[in-house]
Amino acid sequence: MKPLVYAMVLLAGACSRSRGAEEAPPPAVMVPPAASSVTAPAKKPAETLERFLATVRTALETRDVATLARYAAPGGIRFDPYAFIAPEPTVVLTPNELRGALTDPTLRKFGAYDGSGEPIVMTFAEYFDKFVRIPDLEHAQRAVDSTIGSGNTPSNLKQVFPDASFVEFHHAGSDPKYEGMDWQSVRVVFRRDGDHFRILAIIHDQWTI
């Protein structure tokens, strides 16, 4: 091959390789996946004291034992018919027992009647209507960690439950002939447990002999 022709062939090959290099596609770039847009659900806010007290009042008024069971302490709720709480609880119902208590025909001893000393033997439904669901609960006076009704039976609530709080719902009485001595109160003893409240006891109070 003549020198001039050979040089032209080499030059053409170089140009061809240069164009091929320029036209080659760029290398692929790995793009990291987009961050997930799903966020964790927001934590439910802690229940307020005011909401708890309103819920409890409604549960007592409507005989909603399912709600009481939901708030019950793991060991159950004890029930006392008078302000002075006996050293040993007579009736304590666990959350499971509470849910079916209104239809349970079991007779239980809830202590003794003031004055006569006769045993208070009733079904839970009978006891609830006489010693828990006081008159006009919807409009009853309310106080937290303070006693409204006071008779001649001392209350030892704070001695039995020194680390707990209580709410009292109080009916001042309605029959003029009793001059206010037909008052009744129900006190719900409770304690905050994390974001929730737990009911420890429900105590009835009234004028005693």
Would you give an account of this structure?
The protein is an alpha+beta fold and about 210 residues long. Helix content is about 30%, strand content about 25%. The protein contains six helices and eight strands; from the N terminus they run H-H-H-E-E-H-E-E-H-E-H-E-E-E. It has helices at about 5-25, 50-60, 65-70, 95-100, 125-130, 155-160; strands spanning about 75-80, 90-95, 110, 120, 140-145, 165-170, 185-195, 195-205. The strands form two sheets. A six-stranded mixed beta sheet has the order 2-1-8-7-6-5. It has a two-stranded antiparallel ribbon with strand order 3-4. A hairpin with a 2-residue loop joins strand 7 and strand 8. The protein is globular.
Our measurement of the CA-to-CA distance between the termini, rounded to an integer number of angstroms, reads 137 Å
Strand content: 15-25%
* Poorly predicted ranges: 1-12, 14-22
Rg is 38 Å
Q: What's the arrangement of strands in the largest beta sheet?
A: 2-1-8-7-6-5
Query: What structural class should be given to the helix and strand makeup?
Result: alpha+beta
The tally of beta strands, per DSSP, is 8
Overall helicity:
25-40%
Query: Helix count?
Result: 6
Query: What's the overall geometry?
Result: globular
Mean pLDDT: 85
Assembly state: single chain
What characterizes the major β-sheet? 6 strands, mixed
User: What is the H/E order?
Assistant: HHHEEHEEHEHEEE
